[in-house]
Amino acid sequence: MRATTGYTENHPRWLRRRKSTYWWLERVSYLVFILRELSSVFVAWTVAFLLLLVHAVSQGDNSYRQFLSWSASPAVLLLNLTSLFFVVFHATTWFRLAPQAMVVHVRGRRLPGAWIAASNYLLWALATASVAWLLLGD
Amino acid sequence: MPDRITLSVARYRPENESAISFQQYEVPCHKEWVVLDGLNYVKDQLDGTLTYRWSCRMGVCGSCGMNVNGEPKLTCATFLADYAPGPVRVEPMTNFPVIRDLVVEIGDFMRKLTEVKPWIVRKEEKPLSEGEYRQTPQELEEYKQYSMCINCLLCYAACPIYGLEPDFIGPAAIALAQRYNLDGRDEGASERLEILSRHEGIWGCTFVGECTKVCPKDVDPAGAIQRYKLSASVASLKRLLMPWGAP
Amino acid sequence: MSASHDVVLVGGGGAGLRAAIAIAETNPRLSIAVISKVYPMRSHTVSAEGGAAGAIRPDDSLDEHAYDTISGGDWLCDQDAVEAFVKEAPQELLRLERWGCPWSREPDGRIAVRPFGGMKKMRTWFAADKTGFHMLHTLFQTSLKYTSVSRYDEWFVTKLLVDDGRVQGVVAIELMSGRIEAITAGAVILCTGGCGRVFPFTTNANIKNGDGMALAYRAGAPLKDMEFVQYHPTGLPFTGILITEASRSEGGYLINKDGYRYLQDYGLGKPEPQPVFRSMELGPRDRLSQAFVKEVEKGRTIETPYGPVVHLDLRHLGEKIINTKLPFVRELCLKYQNIDPVKELIPVRPVAHYMMGGVSTDIEGATPLAGLYAAGEAACVSINGANRLGSNSLPELLVFGARAGRLAAEYASTRNDDPGPKLLAQAKDEQRRLEALLGENGGRERIATLRDEMQKTMEESAGIYRSGDSLRQAVEAIGRLKERYADAAIEDHSRTFNTERIAALELSFMLDVAEAILSSAQRREESRGAHQRTDFPRRDDDRFLAHSLAYRSSDDSCRIEYLPVTITRWPPGERVYGR
Fold this sequence. Notes:
The structure holds 3 protein chains of 3 kinds. By secondary structure, chain A is mostly helical. Chain A folds into 2 domains: 71 residues, Fumarate reductase/succinate dehydrogenase, transmembrane subunit (3 helical TM bundles of succinate and fumarate reductases); 37 residues, no CATH class. Chain A contains 4 helices and 2 strands, in the order H-H-H-E-E-H. In chain A, strand 1 and strand 2 form a beta hairpin. The radius of gyration of chain A is 24 Å and the shape is flat. Chain A starts with 27 loop residues before the first helix and ends with a helix. Chain C contains 15 helices and 22 strands. In chain C, helix 1 links the parallel strand 1 and strand 2.
């Protein structure tokens, strides 16, 4: 197609603007996106922490207590609180975006996006309730 | 509402310049005037050298996309009064090479559009004498949203991935591919999958979601791409588990 | 300095793209060039809203579609062309369906049709209220399949190359770089659309400057029926944005400043709560526009900063109907004029909308000049006669785009000549002329000033009502504007994407077209369809059942000749509405 012209003697010099390394600071939505991506790191840490906990338990009572006191230290506490924030952030942004990605048809009609988001929150609430019952019940 | 407003317009003259400079123009600010009316006033009355694209003045041709105060907008649908007292910064759309002033080069998109095969692909056509392919209003709804794209390319201006990785096929092209994939009359989904399941295709997208935000026609290209990721994954899985062909 | 193709299409809208596809399918070995001054998806076809007519219902017939078209055109239509048109229209619309066009459907999946002004039966196919948009994008995306189609996007054609009595190519500027090339061809098809921009209030986009009409006119081909300019009765003031006829076919009312449905005073039937075919608000466009002018004279219109308007009332339809059937109307009113049709009255006035006239062609799309063809709004076959019915122009693009394409393909496949030295000399002269425009010419007239004056002249003298004196003065005024044009100031001396030079060239095209319109109108001493003379208020079939042909004389003035209308089965009758 001729539209993809090669350079001729009259061809003007196109200005190609380079994207700044700090492009993600230019708009709030870009910043939120980057934080969302970053939250995966904290999700990974939460998994790692859980594995460490399981390992500590498997090593016996002493190692478990050591682990608990280590977890109570200010640095680890801060890390875990930050992780809590980011995990919640991760989940809520995911739930907000899920309806855009999932189109569900029931009997030939499209389910409204709000239902998909709502069902995600519902499952989350149920999971939390079950865990709470396990931990706190009796 | 003041009756004048200043436009701060990006200029680039390739013969003598290698960077953008800004020029200020004061234009009338009427209630019905959009940024494009301001630019036309400049070109007609103040500075005939100001260069930009426009045509329909009603948001359907897609020519007049520019960055207004940093946001990709159709300048025919952006009221000057909303920016009072101004100044209003008007720049060429982000992520595209600038040819001159506010005109950007869109050849890359035109090539990518062709690559995704945006036409009905069918092995066999029934003759015209047999009438139309039946398509219920519900079936039409399936792809209708993605068919509304006016190719204004604001989504490409908003997409940071397109800015960082120029090979990315991009929101509009993928949404148009989906438009055909979801059209019951089309049989080309697997052909398009070949092209789109590469890294420059759907997997380049990290669901920033800006494209959907700036789209003036509510096409929701981000949604189209994520849905495509789901169906592409399912298709790949099927191919893996049933290499002899899915039923 | 030059490129060569078998067929060159000037214009990449509905007609141009349909023609390109037709040629590619007829003869895949022909090399096709689509030269468009904008990217094809920006072509003005994109803005058409209401629909495309094709008789498909069992209670409808081709003859009825033909009769509605012919009577709506006040018997100036060539009936053989109309018969061919109504026959091929449903086929072409169906072909578009095959190519993916998202026609709106009945619940059972069949193509849906709706009523439209001037049509006695429901035969208008539609794709929501963005029919032109969907048709154009379907055509454009489908055209991408054909590798024999080369596109010259954002190239502006400035002249037709004619040698040996044949059109053999064009000279065009590549906007991006400013380079000027001769593109030779066996055949050239003009699909450049109409020329609404010679008027101040128009639905037409900035790009509708009558380029192809002027190119043909300057090359010696005649322009047919140029005096017939269709006004759309409902356009927004200031922007000229069209408020589709569908808003009336869904049940909107036109009311004056007293809230009165004034159309009942003008022989268009009695006001009913529901829309009635060919009556009141669904009457033909020219009658509605004329009623507006009369209301202005009676002082019953509403004054605004942009001139007098009447109101279109959609409030009684309710939000649900407006959102399903007329979503685009609501969107346009809100986004461009900050008005909500659900709650408010829409200010409207007649706006110049469509040129019935254009480059004279026969029913296959050939002009009298060998090698030159035309299709779409740029052409005049004529199927629209003195007044076009709504929803006939979109199928016209397809039917005649395909016809012209096929005929041009056949002609071009027999042509194998190399461009002669005279042709290349012409191209070189043109190149020099265009380059000179970039020099320091020291002109003193602003292009915008000349354009505004031209538009004002046209509005006053070639508006809805015309008179001999006013037309004569207007022709002289255009002559003076042409002289002043020689002194036009082009401040932009750059080669790169010089839109000021393009605007100057477009203005020069528009001045030629304006002169053709005024001269044709001056000579037609009768009133017919869209051409209404206050000094000759009756239709005169004895003298004027003929097409006017505007030729450019050697002294640059406009010479008018006449060509009889082809009548086959429907002898001229009286246009009667609203029974």
